[in-house]
């Protein structure tokens, strides 16, 4: 990721998302009205969260199967950034719920699943903090990360589909992307998903680099 | 994995259990007194929906304490000793099976206490009434839910116990690591128990039972695959 051009793409994509997202035309729909524009933010940020947490899973699995330097750091930082985006997703979702469903929060499988997944990843951070030995910390947190990811997948994707749910894309409700997304909105939605995901990856890359440099400095001091 | 080794390890657990009887007694007392607090503080203790949630929350808290004993109470020395004797999978399977029996026992004690205190209106007494009315009854369904629920609880909590035993603040980590992961299982179990309290037969709950069973299988598979990575030092 040492190339730089994709960072310009991120900036352009996000500028486009914000400008076209607020000024572009959207279909006039009952209940949703203009709040449909939140699709470019809430849904896209949630996509980025799931992608980041999956990146973290990948590095945790690789840490356990074939030891490579810094894999554990990469997994931990991917969780940090993923949780940040997850919180943003919950906040934007809560605002959206207020203007379409009438309350900030409803007892819904998908919403609660998101919170449970966030709790599991907060627990992951605390687990990392409470093990002092570095090798041990890396291995044990990798194991927990894999377990948490699978349970998150169950809670987010499988259980909501089996119960009644207000949230689109579960409990028999159609999801947005499938057949009812207008073509003008698709032109903003897909770049928005790409933009937010790449922004998350950019943040992750910077944080990993800072951590690696920190490690180097600490090692030199010890020697 | 070796069946003889597993049974020997379970025998060892039982022997240790009988040497410190206070440990098991403490667990039973913990469960019963927690339920008694719920009984005294919650007005609607005869509402099946309330009882159902309380029953499973109490079982969850009791099970966390059951599983916490399995690795935390053993010292580092005995860990190394077992490491030289048996494979890691044998060890985790024996601990899961042993904890399973203790959790099932706790579940029955908790159900009995709830049945005793909830009066004649809802919950398990309703179950008994239905049992008389419908001849076939749905106690077998309730038993099946307890067995499947205990399997998942015991596997996940034993696994988390082995994670938290490596850290510095064990009791707190045991709770915060396991609560988010156990929630899918707990919600399916609570929904099933509610259906059974309302008198659903086996054919009506088969879908949820299969979800619960597949959750159990996922948890068991993950625990058995991942445990060796925790174990090697």
Overall description:
The complex is a heterodimer of chains A (223) and B (233). By secondary structure, chain A is mainly α. Chain A has one domain (5-222). Chain A has helices at residues 5-23, 42-65, 71-100, 109-129, 134-162, 183-222. In chain A, helix 2 crosses helix 5 (134-162), helix 3 packs antiparallel against helix 4 (109-129) and helix 3 (71-100) packs antiparallel against helix 6. Chain A starts with a helix and ends with a helix. Chain B is mostly helical. Chain B has one domain (3-231). Chain B has nine helices and no strands. Chain B has helices spanning 3-19, 21-41, 48-72, 76-85, 88-117, 123-134, 139-164, 170-197, 202-231. Residues 133-137 of chain B have low confidence and may be disordered. Chains A and B meet through helix 4 and helix 5 of A and helix 7, helix 8 and helix 9 of B.
List keywords for this structure.
heterodimer; A: 223 residues; mainly alpha; 6 helices; 73% helix; B: 233 residues; 9 helices
Low-confidence spans of chain B = 133-137
Beta-strand proportion of chain A = under 5%
Number of DSSP E strands of chain B: 0
Q: For the largest interface in this structure, which chains are involved and how many residues does each contribute?
A: A-B, 27 and 25 residues
Number of helices of chain B: 9
Largest sheet of chain B: none
Query: Which stretches of chain A are poorly predicted, pLDDT < 50 over at least 5 residues?
Result: none
The number of E-state strands of chain A comes to: 0
Residues in β-strands, percent of chain B: under 5%
- Give me the Rg of chain B, rounded: 18 Å
Question: What oligomeric state is this?
Answer: heterodimer
State the secondary-structure class of chain B: mainly alpha
Radius of gyration of chain A: 19 Å
Shape of chain B: globular
Principal-axis shape of chain A equals globular
Helicity range of chain B: over 70%
């Amino acid at each position: 990721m040492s190339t730089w051009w994709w960072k310009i793409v991120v900036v352009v994509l996000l500028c486009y998302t914000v400008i076209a997202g607020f000024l572009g035309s959207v279909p006039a729909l009952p209940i949703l009205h203009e709040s449909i524009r939140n699709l470019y933010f809430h849904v896209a940020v949630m996509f980025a969260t799931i992608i980041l947490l999956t990146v973290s899973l990948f590095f945790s699995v690789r840490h356990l199967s074939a030891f490579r330097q810094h894999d554990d750091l990469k997994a931990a930082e991917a969780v940090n950034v993923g949780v940040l985006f997850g919180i943003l997703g919950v906040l934007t979702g809560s605002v959206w719920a207020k203007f379409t469903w009438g309350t900030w929060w409803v007892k819904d499988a998908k919403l609660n699943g998101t919170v449970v997944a966030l709790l599991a990843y907060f627990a992951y951070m605390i687990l990392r903090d409470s093990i002092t030995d570095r090798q041990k910390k890396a291995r044990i947190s990798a194991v927990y990360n894999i377990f948490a990811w699978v349970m998150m997948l169950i809670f987010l994707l499988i259980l909501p589909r089996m119960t009644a749910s207000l949230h689109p894309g579960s409990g028999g409700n159609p999801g947005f992307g499938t057949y009812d997304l207008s073509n003008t909105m698709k032109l903003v939605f897909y770049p928005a998903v790409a933009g937010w995901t790449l922004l998350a990856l950019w943040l992750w890359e910077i944080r990993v680099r800072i951590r690696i440099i920190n490690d180097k400095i600490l090692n030199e001091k010890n020697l | 994995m070796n069946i003889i080794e597993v049974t020997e390890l379970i025998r060892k657990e039982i022997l240790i259990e009988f040497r410190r009887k206070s440990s098991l007694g403490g667990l039973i007392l913990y469960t019963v007194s927690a339920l008694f607090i719920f009984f005294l503080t919650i007005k609607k203790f005869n509402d099946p929906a309330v009882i159902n949630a309380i029953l499973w929350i109490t079982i969850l808290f009791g099970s966390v304490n059951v599983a916490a004993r399995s690795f935390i109470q053993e010292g580092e020395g005995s860990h190394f000793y077992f490491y030289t004797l048996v494979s890691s999978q044998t060890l985790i399977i024996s601990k899961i099976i042993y904890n399973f029996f203790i959790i099932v026992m706790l579940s029955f004690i908790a159900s009995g206490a709830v049945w005793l205190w909830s009066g004649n209106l809802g919950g398990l007494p309703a179950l008994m009434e239905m049992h008389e009315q419908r001849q076939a009854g749905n106690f077998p369904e309730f038993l099946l839910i307890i067995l499947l629920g205990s399997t998942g609880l015991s596997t996940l909590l034993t696994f988390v116990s082995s994670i938290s035993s490596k850290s510095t603040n064990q009791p707190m980590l045991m709770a915060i690591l396991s609560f988010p992961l156990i929630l899918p299982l707990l919600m399916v179990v609570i929904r099933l128990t509610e259906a059974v309290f309302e008198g659903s037969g086996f054919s009506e709950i088969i879908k949820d039972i299969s979800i619960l069973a597949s959750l159990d299988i996922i948890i068991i598979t993950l625990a058995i695959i991942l445990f060796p990575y925790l174990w090697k030092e």
